[in-house]
Amino acid sequence: MTRSPVFPLAVDGGRTGGSILAGLLSSDLPRSKVLTAILLAILLGLAATPFLFSGSQPLSTAAKICVFIVLVASYDLLLGYTGIVSFAHTMFFGIGGYGIAIALERLGATWFSVAIGLVAALLLSALLAIAIGLLSLRVRAIFFSMITLAVASAMAVLASQLSTITGGEDGLSFQLPVELRPAFRLLPEPVLGVSINGRLIAYYLLFFVALLTFLLLLRIVNSPFGRVLQAIRENEFRAEALGYRVVAYRTMASVVSALAATVAGALMALWLRYNGPDTTLSFSIMIDILLMVVIGGMGTMYGSVIGAMLFVLAQSYLQVLMSAGSTALAGVPVLPSLIHPDRWLLWLGALFVISVYAFPGGIVGRLRQATQ
Amino acid sequence: MTGMAVEPSASSEPLPRAKTDWLPLLLVPALALLALPLVGSGSTWVTLTVAGLAMGMMIFLMASGLTLVFGLMDIINFGHGVFISLGAYASLLVLGPLAAWAQAESVWLNLALLLLCILAAMGVTGIVGTVFERVIVRPVYGSHLKQILVTMGGLIVAEQAIHAIWGASPIPIPLPATLRGAFIIGDVVMERYRLVAVGIGLLVFVGMQLLLNRTRIGLLIRAGVENPEMVEALGYRIRRLFVSVFVAGSALAGLGGVMWAFYRQTLTAGMGMEVMVLVFIVIIIGGLGSVGGCFVGSMLVALVANYVGFIEPKLALISNILVMALVLIWRPQGLFPVARR
Amino acid sequence: MAEPLLQLSGVHTHIGPYHILHGVDLAAPAGQLTMLLGRNGAGKTTTLRTIMGLWRASSGTIRFDGRDIAKDGTPDIARTGIGYVPEAMGIFAALTVRENIVLAARNGPVDSARLDWMFGLFPSLKRFWNLPAGDLSGGQKQMLAIARAIAEPRRLLLIDEPTKGLAPVMVRSMIEAFRALKAAGETILLVEQNFYAASALGDNVIVMDDGRVVHSGLMSELVADKNLQRRLLGLSLDAHQ
């Protein structure tokens, strides 16, 4: 395969030619004024969070959003661009987290340990992704979904069983390298009233790694490789007939996606200074990822930004809103129990189902449609 | 279906012989025999085997509907687990008012209670299955991707609905009095409830086999699994058939859910999804769409889990994955691949 | 002249993004055997599938016995009395020969006279009665497929390439069977690539190309007119002798 035929994207507008921005975004621009505004607001908001809000809660929320943007974008590569449903994405997320946690706990709180942990995790993820892909992607896509579900659950069980290595159900807490500890001060004086400490450095480390990974994923889906993936998604048999080795491409896609998820897991562990089954491996996180990617917009990459933002904010703040509503409706039968703060997932689930039927492009798709 | 008994007449042409695929069927007894020396003690082996069979029967109950629905209409319902949970919770409808029956030291009263629980579960899951099929599944025929997503969404919503109705905390459900404990014969220990589970599982399996092989509906289902289009071209409304199979599959999941709930003696909304991992492994091993394969697969997975759990407990939890990998390496389409079109 | 039993007028069919039938007009008169000829990809199979409702006609009418069935569902079309033998035969391989026939007789058991008649046409079905249909040879499967279409009295038989891939001896016995069906007064629309078989059987002939009907008339006329044959069928005349 020396020259790949070009499969143009569905809409290939917004080519501003040569500009740096287009280069950074791989010429895949938001293509909607509202979407551009929202994305810019999210970017600036995340970049300036430490200076806009005080206290640790907003910073943690922002960090979680950054991690989930990477996690969801990497899942979108698989679901939206390649058209296969994996339930093992949290497994790779977990491997990243455990890689960092185990390395830092065993080898000491150094940058060297971080590097070792990350590299080992990436290697393990790549191997697993290849093994699962080769075993199940050649049969039917539906096998892949079921097998990933089974393998992921076995991994979760394994992680909680091998407690000498993973800390079992309790997980692992560990020390970060000195520069990332809250007590570390980069500058003696606060800037704009915010002290430049290790926590802040950790946040920006996370922010920039997330941003870079996201841009890299955007580049990948817009490369010839990404276009082949979409061609396969649209018509597997035709792509096969054109000479593309479908299994190889799908396996590659799941490897790339697994690697990005591993990075996300590593970031999560670095931020939390902890990793355990519930923070990275649980099936409920898998469900959350699905909700985020579908509601945000499958196959758009930007959907992951919107989806992650919306979901994490909903998780943190929607419950407060619903609790108010529930109290206001006290006395009315059934209704209060439906908008009970614990039922927020019920409504996101319903939104998810409606999205799949009515707006397969999710929020991003809607915004782009409105523009046209 | 009588009146067509025609004897084949003799002729010089050699009669082709019906090929029965025995190998996968032999796998289960072979496995049991192989485990005997590894387990060591005969009585422990019996206990483990009964436990394995009981677990296998329950998995079969939960998985059989799913595999049939897939075979017939090429629909994979990732929300199937909800029917397991729902069936389990539906037994509360019976256990609440008839709490006295559970306390009674009467085998018949206890079994009747179990039966009523099963009926309630099948009724509720059957009704919800009808709605689920119409609202969730019907709009996404033909697209596996959307099916997986939408049925997953249905699962989220339904699990949350269970929380809204019955609360989010686990609910204990004790076994009826006479079904607790074990029969002890010599040094062989067999838990009573497991024997009941084996009995009910076998009953359902035999019933399904009779239905599939001896009735017109069964013929239609088997034909539909192979070639739904041709079934329609013969004048049968396969949609109606499909809805009934979907509803029956949901009801079976509900039945399995009740059995599973009494086995765990706890209800949680997520219990269905937890066991779905096993269910998927079983239907992959059996061959998607094959009821017989589903049965063999269930027994295989459950027996291996029990034997390995005794011999090398650390391995037990991933033994399913190993069994699946081995089977898929041997037969990539599962033990009994279903011919399609 | 009375209206033909089956009449297609201006039928267009799209399959996904592809436009396959471009306004097909054809008729199958009652009690006759109508041959549908044409090279691969001419739209013959699509025409039969459209009549059965397995593909939807995007426009045009399909009148069967005076009623438009173009919008009906496949089961309803079958229930009006149309038997269908698809190109791939559509045998239920996991079912026995007997079970295949039992399913085909939707309105109850096949009476013994009809069964004897079917066994007379296709003797091997009787011998393999209780064997899985999947174990039959190609020709036997084809016979089962046709037997299934006539397991009940039907008003029209749609049969797609019954001689495809069969050994010459099988082709001959298949032709015999169709002669017998004709003699029994069945109305048949038969897709055929084999002009030898077609010319031996057809009362009428319809030739399709590129999703349109390019010729229709009596078979005897086409058989007599070598030039017309060459123009309509090109090399297929000699290639299939």
What keyword list fits this structure?
heterotrimer, A: 372 residues, mainly alpha, ABC transporter involved in vitamin B12 uptake, BtuC, two-stranded antiparallel sheet, 17 helices, 2 strands, disordered N terminus, C: 241 residues, alpha/beta, Rossmann fold, 4-stranded antiparallel beta sheet, 11 helices, globular, disordered C terminus
Describe this structure in words.
- The complex is a heterotrimer of chains A (372), B (341) and C (241).
- Chain A has 372 residues and is mainly alpha-helical.
- Chain A has one domain: ABC transporter involved in vitamin B12 uptake, BtuC.
- Chain A has 17 helices and two strands.
- Chain A has helices at 20-24, 33-52, 56-81, 89-107, 111-136, 141-161, 163-166, 198-221, 224-234, 236-241, 246-272, 277-281, 283-296, 302-328, 335-338, 344-358, 362-371; strands at residues 172-173, 274-275.
- Chain A has a two-stranded antiparallel sheet with strand order 1-2.
- The longest helix of chain A has 27 residues, at 246-272.
- Chain A is globular.
- The relative contact order of chain A is 0.16.
- The model of chain A is unreliable at 1-17 (pLDDT under 50).
- In chain B, strand 2 and strand 3 form a beta hairpin.
- With 341 residues, chain B is mainly alpha-helical.
- Mean pLDDT of chain B is 86; it is low at 1-14.
- A two-stranded antiparallel sheet of chain B has the order 1-4. Chain B has a two-stranded antiparallel ribbon with strand order 2-3.
- The radius of gyration of chain C is 17 Å and the shape is globular.
- Chain C has two domains: 6-81 and 155-239, Rossmann fold (3-Layer(aba) Sandwich), CATH 3.40.50; 93-153, no CATH class.
- Chain C is built from eleven helices and ten strands.
- The model of chain C is unreliable at 236-241 (pLDDT under 50).
- In chain C, the strands form two sheets. In chain C, strands 6-7-8-3-9-10 form a six-stranded mixed sheet, with helices on both faces. A four-stranded antiparallel sheet of chain C has the order 2-1-4-5.
- In chain C, strand 4 and strand 5 form a beta hairpin.
- With 241 residues, chain C is of the alpha/beta class.
- The longest helix of chain C has 16 residues, at 168-183.
- Chains in contact: A-B, B-C.
- Chain A binds chain B through residues 79, 83-85, 135, 138-139, 141-143, 145-147, 149-151, 153-154, 157-158, 161, 283, 287, 290-291, 294, 337-338, 340, 342-343, 345-346, 348-350, 352-353, 356-357, 360, and chain B through 76, 78, 136, 139-140, 144-146, 148-150, 152-154, 156-157, 160-161, 163-164, 168, 273, 276-277, 280-281, 283-284, 288, 314, 317-318, 320-321, 324-325, 328, 332-333.
